[in-house]
Amino acid sequence: MRWLHYPDAVRASRIDLPHEIMKTIRIGNGAGFWGDNLDAPRKLAESGQIDYLTLEYLAELTMSILAHLRSRDPNAGYVSDVPTVIASCAPALKAQPGLKIVTNGGGMNPSACAKRCAEVLREAGLSECRIAAVSGDDLLPRIDELMAAGETFENFDTGAAFGETRPKIVSANAYLGAEGIVRALQGDARIIVTGRVADASLTVGPVLHEFGSGFDNLSLLSAATVAGHLIECGAQATGGMYAPWTTAIPLANVGYPIAEICEDGSLTVTKPSGSDGLVSTATVAEQLIYEIGDPEHYLTPDLDADFSQITLTQDGPNRVRVANASGHPAPPRLKVSMAYQDGWMINGMLTVCGPNATANARAAGRMILDRVAAAGYQLARTNIECLGAGDSMPGVRLPGPGSEPWEVVLRVTAHDPRREALDRLAREFAPLVTSGPPGVTGYATARPEPRRVLAYWPTTIDRRHVPPQVVVRTAQEWLA
Amino acid sequence: MSDTIRLGDIAHARSGDKGNHANIGVIAWTAVGAEYIGRVLTEQRVAEFFLPLRPRGVERFPMPGIHAWNFLLYDALGGGASRSLRIDTQGKTLALAILEMRIPRPSNLDEMRFASEDLVAARPQG
After folding, report:
1. A393: nearest CB among B19, B85, B97
2. CATH number of the domain where residue B52 is located
3. For a disulfide at A217, which of A213, A440, A441, B64, Cβ 3.0-4.6 Å?
């Protein structure tokens, strides 16, 4: 692999160079999940150090939550942070005509999200801004048709057949790759709002488009895929969650990650100048290994990537070069994430203080379950934890507190098919303040509420059944 | 001098979830440390350490370019993000736990500690 080295002066002015001689594109990711820091995208956009801002919002079960929201309101079902973030980035979009935003926060309703973004952009005076909605991932209305075409949707983790789960499915989404994003960019979109596009593909799309490459350019695709993986969780690449972290690494103003990708497949990870955090071979290594299985086969819709031989080199302060990613063409089947209704879950907490806090808390937890049982409910699954006494890792031998803790947080969790059984459990926390062991306090929050369990059903589908659909319109046209 | 050390004396780590499976990446500070970890941190040893979490099995994968070993702990999360009754539904704290594991003190421990202070210290802004 060949490295391109730019003098600092050129690197600093790269944003002003015309496209023909632009050798690197810079992609910053400002969100790693729905609920991530709302200021991070704006700070990346305003840094002037990126060409593309990506926003990754979809965890495995986020789609099922969005499906539930859309079932109650046909104009809902997208990540509500998206229009807020787009509004915050509007000044940067005006000041930097080349800046583009790619997000999978369209969730279960990319076109409704695009319309809402159009309103926000029109209000900001950007009526001509072109917005794309990329969909085609939603398989829920097509399950019967797809089964007739030979898809069986067995669980790829457990091998279980689909039959009994089929009637309980509430969402079913294929993981789309970068193709729809590339087509949107070819249609001159500046804001691209997608459904369930794979995390890394948010980065792969811009890279393929900018360098005019196809899915046969495996070295570029490999670099873009690892870049996407490294930045998809936001500040986890720049000092957040870093195991050896100390207060010597401030994080209050942590910089979110930027991937600089050259045409030849060379890749550098960095963060905005003047931001907190740390980009070192160690922080990047932790993110490289995060949530991967067999490193020789990191499967995305775009590539069967091989991360096993990757090397990292510190290339100046807060700059890490990433080399030796490789890959094979993507497999013919795409991952599908389904969610099915699986009863109800609840958790409630109380603080228990004093001598014997741990033993007293455990006894209080059992009292709660005994009282629910006495009311006629044998709960299907329950768990009692004493947080502060080592129960986050129950039974694993870890260095604990030197002596019995003065206080622990009692946490009781239950899962049951019957909502009313958990409503009964919810009532049993508060009475312990007066009718339980001494030292029970901290009942400062409202009575806990049961929540629907939307369980995860991973499966696959032939990619030929899932063509992406792309609509590109100006903000004005979206609102016409 | 103790005849054991913490795994965290020669490595750092990160963990997370893949459905009901957890992964723990153990990253040695040096190549020498990675080689040593490869000998002492077997699949069997990791399975025993996390036995109370009842993993169905443990599989180990090398990542030599970053001096790391990736451990997959199958069905170790009590149902995963959607169904687990535990506080740590996604296995995010497994990394800190494994770093507390006691392993035999190697004679060449000095070759396994931080390669450079730069790796943990905040550096000047670029």
Report:
1. B97
2. 3.30.70
3. A213
Q: Do the chains contact at B83 and A250, CB–CB below 8 Å?
A: no
d(CA A381, CA A415): 5
- Per-residue pLDDT reduced to its tens digit, B46-92: 999 999 999 999 999 999 999 999 999 999 999 988 899 999 999 99
Range list of β-strands (E), A266-324 = 267-270, 298-299, 303-306, 311-314, 320-323
Contact yes or no for B53 and A250 at CB 8 A: no
Residue A463, amino acid: R
Do residue A327 and residue A379 come from a single domain? no
The whole-chain average pLDDT of chain A stands at 93
Same domain, A234 and A371: no
Q: Which residues form the domain of A263? A: 8-139+173-331+464-478
Q: Say yes or no: A209 and A322 in one domain.
A: yes
Position B121 in a domain: no
Cα(B108)–Cα(B53) distance, integer angstroms: 33
A277 and A389 co-located in one domain: no
* Number of domains chain B is built from: 1
Shortest alpha-carbon distance between residue A452 and chain B (Å) = 10
ipTM for the complex shown: 0.94
Q: Is residue B72 part of a domain?
A: yes
What the block records as the tokens of A177 is 């790759």
Predicted local confidence at residue A180, as pLDDT: 98
Q: How many CB pairs under 8 A join A and B?
A: 175
**Inter-residue contact A427 to A374 (CB < 8 Å):** no
